[in-house]
Write a structure and sequence with these properties.
mainly alpha; about 60% helix
Length: about 70
Amino acid sequence: MIVTGCTASRTHKLIPGEKDANRVLAVGRAPVEQNFAYLKNWRTLTKLRTDPARATQLLRALLVLTNLEVNR
């Protein structure tokens, strides 16, 4: 399921509840998008040839190690 934010138009302005929902969605989405952008810069991942489940485990471990190093 893909969750998207509410959009405004010229005739439909966002109500405060919709603005709050968009803000909550953006707060949760920002770290994920930043980490994906960070991972795309790793050249080794372009040569990764394994099944998706194994790749997911590997990427999770890499992100944990990266965040530990950054927060050090």
